[in-house]
Amino acid sequence: MRTIIIVLALAALANNAAGLNCLLCLGSTNSDCSRGDMSAMVIQRCEDSLPAMQNSTLSKLTAPRSIGEQRDEPDIRTTCVSFIATNAGVTFFERGCGFIWEGIDICEYMTQYIEVNACSNCDTDLCNNNPLDY
């Protein structure tokens, strides 16, 4: 079965990533990560995230770059994202940096590739620290 994971690894395309810091963690829906326990999270500098994320669970969806090329190089916006999703029968909670085209909702975009049970995004430092209901 083809594993599809979230596209959050477009740091190389993001001109506005400088300075945004998001909380990063991955766990079950009952984990310290999902409850917003800071001891379960690390601070992720979005501008530095591409090398680490290329091989992570956050980077395996259809890359917006290929679609972006058809859209005449749209601006990419950096956001902090938290979501609960189900993939291959496993439900998980994830937080981290997200990169998406201006005018596109990252939570809606992800639903094309994965079952998203709950999702939120924000654009200030460490703003993705709240639990999500689902």
From TrEMBL:
The lineage of its organism: Eukaryota, Metazoa, Ecdysozoa, Arthropoda, Hexapoda. It comes from the Eukaryota. It comes from Popillia japonica. Keywords: Signal. This is Protein sleepless. Residues 1-19 form the signal peptide.
